[in-house]
């Protein structure tokens, strides 16, 4: 498991996808089977109209490039991107297995402040089964949520009930919320007895095990990806639709 501490270039999708390829290669070289990238990583986190206009569909060129990256390096990935919507785009994260299969997309359900005017909110929480060990072990049930979602205990509880043993969190948090973010991460891990891994685009990444003890993390910009391992109990998977539950 790797967390990529990296700052995306706002509005420069091609450069960011190249950066993702470089970091995926570095993580795979260190033995990781999954790497998590920050929130809105593909286009860079911004609420500017010109950046939002760069939104891409879930089956678009950017996601296909990420799928190629995953297959090339044999590593699964979770990466934030601005996804094209009907009225407004979604703040989404794509989940790709290590063979390049796109497992699905999670759309941020709890938008933060001005994000509510820029994005449409998602309404579904899903646990994705990823073959992180290349078929040598049973699939790992991975849940995903994005940044401010961490403030709501019900989100992670729903993922845990659905069988998640690891939750990947693309984030773009900022000061003065670092202490709050760290406390929320520890709480969600302890409450649900699962692992939580967060990749933040603003020089903060953390990975927390079920007991809430920080396994890794760095404040150094462009530091090597943090890599750690975890146990994988028997999985169970289903989706929860927030509009009906």
Topology:
Elements: E1 2-3, H1 13-29, E2 34-36, H2 49-52, H3 61-73, E3 76-83, E4 90-96, E5 102-107, H4 115-118, E6 124-130, E7 140-144, H5 153-161, E8 166-171, H6 178-192, E9 195-200, E10 204-208, E11 216-218, E12 226-227, E13 239-241
Parallel strand pairs: 1-2, 2-3, 7-8, 8-9
Antiparallel strand pairs: 1-12, 3-4, 4-5, 6-7, 6-13, 9-10, 10-11
Helix pairs in contact: 1-3, 5-6
Structure commentary:
- With 245 residues, this protein is an alpha/beta fold.
- The protein has one domain: 4-Layer Sandwich (Nitrilase/N-carbamoyl-D-aminoacid amidohydrolase), CATH 3.60.110.
- The chain has six helices and 13 strands.
- The chain has helices spanning 13-29, 49-52, 61-73, 115-118, 153-161, 178-192, and strands at residues 2-3, 34-36, 76-83, 90-96, 102-107, 124-130, 140-144, 166-171, 195-200, 204-208, 216-218, 226-227, 239-241.
- A seven-stranded mixed sheet has the order 11-10-9-8-7-6-13, with helices on one face. Strands 5-4-3-2-1-12 form a six-stranded mixed sheet, with helices on one face.
- Helix 5 (153-161) runs parallel beside helix 6.
- The radius of gyration is 16 Å and the shape is globular.
Task: Using brief descriptors, characterize the structure shown.
single chain; 245 residues; alpha/beta; Nitrilase/N-carbamoyl-D-aminoacid amidohydrolase; 6 helices; disordered C terminus
The structural class is alpha/beta
Taking the alpha carbons of the first and last residues, their distance comes to 31 Å
Strand order of the largest sheet: 11-10-9-8-7-6-13
Give the tally of β-strands: 13
Counted up, domains total 1
Could you give a short account of the major beta sheet? 7 strands, mixed
Say which CATH homologous superfamily is assigned.
Carbon-nitrogen hydrolase
Q: Uncertain spans, ≥5 residues at pLDDT below 50? A: 203-209, 217-222, 233-245
CATH topology: Nitrilase/N-carbamoyl-D-aminoacid amidohydrolase
Over all CA atoms, what is the radius of gyration? Answer: 16 Å
Tell me the fraction of residues in β-strands, as a range.
25-35%
Spell out the helices and strands N to C.
EHEHHEEEHEEHEHEEEEE
CATH architecture: 4-Layer Sandwich
- Helix proportion of residues, in percent? 25-40%
Q: Estimate the mean pLDDT confidence.
A: 85
